[in-house]
Design brief:
Blueprint (H helix, E strand, L loop, with lengths): L10 H32 L3 H14 L2 H8 L1 H22 L2 H5 L1
Length: 100
């Protein structure tokens, strides 16, 4: 976008920018989701769990602003942020985690 002087030349250029935006957002979401999964299930440590969940839930605040740019990104972020965290809590199989 910045290479073209901040101008979107045509529809194809806009589609390429959106695909790049979606792909990079997926990587970001999966990275944070994986961080939560690892800190909750693979290497359980109370501080690491709290830090990873706090970071991920704090990042969910940015999803509200992204709703105006791409509604599809909101769905992707919701799944990639919350999905791995929910799976890790279910795999722990203790009552408080399953209730969460």
């Amino acid at each position: 976008f910045l290479k073209t002087g901040g101008m979107i030349a045509d529809v194809e250029h806009a589609h390429r920018l959106e695909r790049s935006y979606i792909f990079k957002g997926c990587l970001q979401g999966l990275g944070l989701g994986a961080l939560c999964f690892v800190s909750i299930y693979v290497y359980p440590d109370p501080f690491a769990e709290l830090a990873a969940m706090s970071l991920t839930l704090a990042t969910l605040v940015t999803v509200v602003a992204r709703n105006y740019g791409s509604p599809r990104m909101v769905r992707i972020f919701s799944v990639t942020f919350i999905g791995p965290m929910a799976v890790a809590l279910l795999l722990r199989q203790d009552a408080p985690s399953v209730v969460l």
